[in-house]
Amino acid sequence: MPDRAGRDRPARAVRGNVLLLTVLSLVSLAPVLVLVLTAWQPPARYPSLWAEAARGNADGNVWTTILQNTTLGRAMLTSLLLALLTGLTATGIGFVAARTIARISVRARRLIAAAAFLPVIAPPLALGIGVQVFTLRLGLGGSVTGVLLSHIVPAAGYLTLFLLGALTAYDSRMEDEARSLGARPWQVLLRITLPALRGPIVQAIALGALVSWGQVALTLIVGGGIVRTLPVELLAFVRAGDDRLGAAAAILLTVPPLLAFGLVQAGARRTGVGA
Amino acid sequence: MSAVGNGLTLRDVTVAFGPRVGLRNLSLHVAGGERVALLGPSGVGKTSLLRAIAGLDPVVAGRIDVSGRDVTQVAPERRSVVYLHQTPALFPHLSVLDNVGFPLEVRGVGRAEARERGMALLARVQLTESATRSPSGLSGGQRHRVALARALAAEPDVLLLDEPFAALDPALRAEVRDAVFAMLEAGGARGAASPTSGLGPAVLLVTHDIDEAATLASRVVVLMDSAIAQDDAPAELLARPRDVGVARFLGLPNIIEGVRDAHGLFRSALGTVRSDGSEGRAWFVSRADAILASREDRQRSAADDDARTIVCGEVVSVHDRVGGVTVRVRVRVRDRGQAPVRVGAEETVDVVAVPERGVALSPGDVVTLRVDLSRVSVTPDPIRHV
To answer: Is B64 in CB contact (< 8 Å) with chain A?
Structure first.
């Protein structure tokens, strides 16, 4: 309806929303855009501090350098392994914890949920030092297992809360009826609980993997520079002063999470579970 | 209670209701093939009792036998007891047919056979065309029918129905009730009886609705004050509630205070009745159809036998309901007619009656009430069970 100035208010509101969304999209996409442009820009003219990167820069093909770099390949494999194991393990821990929390009284639930979130709100540096002491005592300092443990701690906290939310919407009466219909506890878990919660569980695994995938501080503190993951190598590129290689490695770091997110969303749409 | 070889037997069962004790020392037997309704106010512990029988919650004390086997400490899946929630908890990730076949598959029946038997059950609830659909696409009534078919696929010895029709609108309620009735009459998954008992399942049904209980069950157990207040056939329960508390809970329309003398004569605003019981305050109780309202302005005559008492009053309201028309009639207890007797401070009592056939009554009409004494009862104050 036109106001006193004769302008159409709904149309104005739509224009305002479009402008707002455009600004938000630009803010979100700008870093990615900068990465892409940097990765494909001509080679730098000043000498690189990192020899291998400098060799790549010599012929100007940064992607050949990235893909032929065996250190980077190993780092990527380590990152993938850590992400996968973190996603699976933290989901398992988060699922059990969330189920336990969901069954207790509301007051106790709040308290324990807050405790589960503690590793998430603690600064990574503080958490890292705590976990480092723990892993050193276990003799796992500087090992992939130690780094894995350090990634699982915050991921399990996130996922406990995430799965607690999913379990709130889950109809646990199904489990009662399944038992009453003759299903044993393991049959209830495999045939009712897990399939009914498939969407949230897959999302939790992806979320846990993402927590590990982007982890730098904990990896450096607990891994002591011995365990090399993709973010750690990326940091090395940046410290070496090669923006092109850094940007290319950053794109490499961004693609798997985007793929995982897309697959999870597609799966949720297809099955209608957890969408 | 005698030992029984089939059905469900509770012996001195005590169950918790939240942090407190819900029902105490409850003893009850439901024979195989028998249908018993549990009726009681909210919070008395009806659902807690069903969950305890199903093994989903522990009992505080007592023993539960199913088909002569003590199952008090047995896991839910090994009790042969199926518990159905008020709103069916169908498995959303399984098709309708797979839902019905679920109890068979978890017992080791092959998938093909489970599906075949599932289809037979779906045919009995007229849902074969929905076999491949997701439960989320079903209406409320269809979901109930699938849940029932699934329950019977388990061929239980005991079937527990927790307010199975409460969440349905009246039209669907009738549809589902008929389906339940037909299924229970026909027997279990194979169209026959439970393999253990040789009869159909013993059915324990929780409801708030006495009409529903009377329709589906051959016995109604009223739970009040943590115990069984009355266990009777529906007609007997409505005609002779054990005490005024039960009568009030059942919603009997006429509950009128009176006095019983030392000679066993009970006097109230609706006349004098001979009744057994102790001297003092008691209550006249009846359904509406035990009292007939007519325009006839007459006193007792030779045509009236001893089984009737007559009082006069004024119509205060007319209620046109699905079950028929009733009128609320105000009787002045100070009148010196045939019967009115004043008990307490009230000067009038309201009586709910049925108009004589063909008589249309309106508020303000003066009517004669004829009370069929064979269909009324005199009942004491609430009996405390604790």
So the answer is: no
Rounded CA separation B324/B322 (Å): 6
Whole-angstrom distance, CA of residue B150 vs CA of residue B159: 12
Nearest to B252 by CA among B384, B385, B386, B378: B378
All residues at 6 or more sequence positions from B262 whose CB lies less than 8 Å from its CB, including other chains: B279
ipTM, 2 decimals?
Answer: 0.77
Strand partners for B291: B371
| Angle at CA of residue B181, ends B177 and B183, nearest 5° | 115
Residue that the structure tokens 């329309």 belong to = B253
CB contact under 8 A, A184 and B93: no
Helix (H) or strand (E) holding A112: helix A106-121
- DSSP 8-state code for residue B77: G
pLDDT in tens, B62-98: 999 999 999 999 999 999 999 998 888 899 999 999 9
B107 CB near a chain A CB, below 8 Å? yes
pTM: 0.76
- By CB atoms closer than 10 A (0-12, 13-18, 19+), residue A72 is buried
Residues of chain B contacting residue A181, judged by C-beta atoms under 8 Å apart: 77, 82, 102-103, 106, 150-151, 153-154
